[in-house]
Design goal:
The complex is a heterodimer of chains A (398) and B (121). Chain A has 398 residues and is of the alpha/beta class. Helices cover 43% and strands 10% of the residues of chain A. The structure holds FE2/S2 (inorganic) cluster. The site of FE2/S2 (inorganic) cluster has 11 residues of chain B, from loops.
Chain lengths: 398, 121
């Protein structure tokens, strides 16, 4: 077989079979070696492929025209007529085999396939509770028709909370807010906020509307009243004007997954949202950690000379960033452990950091990325791996 | 050093990768372009099943004499074993990680004797 045949085989997924347990057998070994059974491990950010279930989801779309449109296909015949289409290369051309092969995985009888697969992944990695998010829907914040984000996120959350989460109380979600539409976001908070398995709310990062827009205040108020967190889950947008010259997935992803969260965090803190909603917990998700010291230094420096432009602030931006804000660990930048140690000190990692795997996406992390760090105490590891999440998500663990 | 029996040579059919447990480690043996290779099935990055990964040539950039980039091509000299978890690439001959040659995975010699395949571990 030639090289190109091997690559083609991987891309097309024609190598037979796929099973998450087999793919993650080495993760299972790590979990046993490190005795994760004795530690609460909460994964604050993992994903499933809701596009595999679009047929089930579409029945909950309220608008009949959009519901009808959901039954169509894209130009390649895939059932994704509502989605945005990007030329992406998460799998590094099939080298990361989960992408081409995952559709071959067969679920267990009696439960939806997603429940089977998520359980296998959790049990292999050693995760006790997992927050699940969709995958292609993460791009909807840039959809040219804002009705699509509103309609699809509503249907998705109905399906998730009515057909998936009831099967297993270890699987949870932060409700996708159609943030382009503040009224629809408020409706989602009020409708889904107290459903079992809902432990907060999520806004996807790639979007342009400013998070301090007055239209959002009622949404933040409603979330704060429920004592639940709001997370800004990073996403990228390859057609972002500034990214259009980036010829590699690596480049656009490295910047894109921090860029939008940098914009939203800056607007959030400089406009004093933590002062206006002092009990609200903000989680900055899937941007890694290396950007945070940069933001703290940069914003503190500019604020020191221009306090008049941030009249609501009573302390430096960095102080809000380590008090009101929480961060998820993935994708952890651990190439320089001294830099990582300093970063963890700067963000008060012991109380503000939440472990996240992002599994099954290409740059996922295992709990060992935290457990094996030489500079963290065992208490700090326990907090990051699960105890901080237990507190923020109000988990009633046994 | 001991020779650990893996399988009869004829069992290495096509893309077959055969595993042998040696103490606490798992070694995967496979044949590529007529040669046998054996690696511990544990990636230096995060412990992934690296020896199950795809084998393909290192991607090289092709530069013109004026330093313009003329495109990219697969190397025919340097083959890589790619970890299926996150894509770390290792030199098939040395086990060195392509992103930092000081990092490597465990690679074992393979010997074929009387139609049987052994790893020297
Ligand atoms: S574990 Fe091999 S690339 Fe990450």
């Amino acid at each position: 077989m030639t090289q190109s045949d091997l690559v083609r085989e991987a891309i097309s997924g024609t190598r037979p079979g796929f099973d998450s347990r087999q793919h993650l057998a080495n993760a299972r070994k790590q979990a046993v070696e490190r005795n994760y059974a004795d530690i609460l491990i909460v994964d604050a950010d993992a994903h499933h492929y809701e596009n595999d279930s679009l047929g089930e989801i579409a029945k909950y779309i309220e608008d009949p025209v959009i519901r009808h449109r959901a039954q169509g296909t894209d130009k390649y015949g895939k059932a994704q007529s509502l989605s945005m289409e990007y030329n992406q290369n998460q799998s590094v051309a099939g080298r990361i085999v989960r992408y081409p092969k995952r559709r071959q995985e067969v679920g267990d009888p009696g439960v939806p396939r997603d429940v089977s697969i998520v359980r296998r992944q959790m049990e292999s990695i050693g995760i006790d509770y997992q927050v699940q998010f969709p995958t292609p829907m993460l791009h909807l914040g840039m959809h040219p028709d804002p009705q699509i984000e509103t309609a699809l996120s509503w249907a998705y959350t109905r399906w998730l909370t009515e057909e998936i989460l009831p099967h297993d109380d270890r699987i949870m979600t932060l409700v996708y807010l159609p943030f382009t539409d503040p009224d629809a976001s408020l409706r989602a908070v009020e409708t889904f906020g107290s459903r079992p398995g809902v432990v907060g709310f999520m806004v996807t990062g790639a979007r342009y509307k400013a998070v301090h827009d007055n239209a959002y205040m009622k949404v933040y108020r409603a979330i704060e009243e429920r004592d639940l967190p709001i997370a800004f889950h990073a996403s990228s947008y390859p057609h972002e004007r500034m990214f259009e010259g980036m010829n590699k997935f690596l480049s656009a992803h490295a910047l894109g997954f921090t860029f939008y969260n940098m914009v939203h965090l800056t607007n959030c803190v400089i406009n004093g949202l933590p002062e206006r909603f002092p009990s609200l917990k903000w989680i900055w998700m899937e941007s890694g950690l290396a950007w945070i010291p940069f933001m703290m230094q940069r914003l503190d420096n500019e604020y020191s000379m221009r306090t008049s432009e941030a009249p609501l602030l009573k302390m430096k931006p960095s102080e809000y960033m380590r008090r009101n804000f929480y961060y998820t660990t993935q994708p952890i930048e651990d190439g320089n452990l001294e830099a990582l140690e300093l970063t963890m000190r700067m963000v008060n990692a012991e109380s503000q950091l939440l472990f996240a795997s992002d599994y099954p996406h290409w740059d996922f992390n295992l709990p060992s990325t935290i457990y094996d760090l030489p500079f963290l105490s065992m208490d700090a590891k326990r907090n990051i791996l699960g105890e901080n999440a237990r507190r923020i998500f109000h988990l009633e663990t046994t | 050093m001991t020779d650990v029996f893996v399988a009869r040579a004829e069992e290495f059919d096509g893309d077959a990768r055969l595993a042998v447990e040696h103490g606490p480690i798992q070694i995967l043996v496979f044949r590529h372009a007529g040669r046998f290779y054996a690696f511990e099935n544990r990636c230096a990055h995060s412990g992934g099943p690296v020896a199950e990964g795809t084998v393909l040539g290192r991607v090289e950039a092709v530069l013109g004499p004026d330093m313009t980039c003329l495109g990219e091509r697969f190397s025919t000299d340097e083959l890589h074993l790619v970890c299926p978890w996150h894509g770390w690439e290792y030199d098939l001959e040395t086990g060195e990680y392509a992103g930092d040659r000081s990092v490597r995975i465990n690679r074992f010699d393979v010997v074929e004797r009387d139609g049987a395949v052994y790893v020297r571990a």
